[in-house]
Design brief:
Elements lengths: L1 H11 L5 E5 L5 E4 L8 H8 L4 E4 L7 E3 L2 E8 L6 H8 L1 H9 L5 E2 L4 H5 L13 E2 L5 E10 L2 E9 L4 H8 L13 H17 L10 H25 L8
Parallel strand pairs: 2-3
Antiparallel strand pairs: 1-5, 2-4, 5-9, 6-7, 7-8, 8-9
């Protein structure tokens, strides 16, 4: 996720808005920026090699990245009222899923209720998108710096039942089937982003060697404070993500 922090830095420096879609090479549990406590078994699962643990730059509760698609959006919104920004920044997701036959609306749980849970998908606030059944399909969280937004989100596609129960002690949300496979879903997400976010074609831009060096520097800069926090809470060090 150092790439996502780098994206926010580029917009802070005057660059254009950036959108990234990505998957994870192995099951990973990302902790919210302000999440200070979590079940001890998560450390045990990490030590057993079942999953990795990383710290997100955005807020919210823990997200299991397995059978999901993650997005990162860096931009400078015209308004700073957070609920309005969430609604604006999720329109492209609503459009794509509506076209897939799964309309999504915003959750209604209070933010304070979500803070009492360790699992992001256990509650749905005004930042999250849910199906008509109430099942939470997309969880989103934000990080603001100098008027620039970094918004993260996890799109649940086929969450692994056994691993989900092992991590959270409960079943994942019961989601409606999508009409598309992964390739078509990503094509439709891109189409919706072009229509709702930028009003034109997205430009693909691979990271240059210099950009990768900047990402690595951000990753190193984040390591020491994170290690200190983990020692203070009695947790074991996390691998970098």
């Amino acid at each position: 996720m150092a790439i996502d922090r780098w994206m926010q830095q580029q917009v802070l420096a005057g660059g254009p808005p950036l959108l990234r879609l990505y998957r994870w090479s192995r099951p990973t549990l990302s902790l919210g920026r302000h999440q200070q406590r979590w079940p001890q078994r998560w450390q045990q699962l990490q030590q057993q090699g079942v999953l990795d643990l990383v710290r997100r730059p955005s807020g919210g509760r823990a997200v299991l990245h397995a059978g999901d698609l993650t997005y990162a959006l860096a931009m400078r919104p015209e308004v700073l009222q957070r609920e309005r920004v969430y609604r604006h920044c999720c329109q492209w997701l609503q459009l794509a899923f509506a076209r897939a036959g799964v309309p999504l609306g915003f959750g209604a749980a209070a933010a304070t209720a979500a803070q009492q849970r360790s699992n992001c998908f256990a509650t749905a606030t005004a930042a999250d998108l849910v199906e008509a059944s109430g099942a939470k399909r997309i969880g989103s969280a934000q990080c603001w710096q100098g008027g620039v937004l970094l918004q993260h989100g996890s799109l649940l596609l086929n969450p692994p039942q056994a691993l989900w129960r092992q991590v959270f002690g409960a079943a994942p949300p019961a989601l409606a089937p999508l009409a598309w496979g992964d390739e078509e879903l990503q094509r439709q997400l891109r189409r919706a982003a072009e229509e709702q976010l930028c009003g034109g074609s997205l430009i693909e831009q691979p990271l240059s060697r210099g950009a990768w060096e900047e990402v690595a520097a951000l990753e190193r800069a984040q390591a020491s404070p994170l290690d200190s926090m983990l020692r203070a809470t009695g947790a074991s060090p996390m691998p970098r993500g």
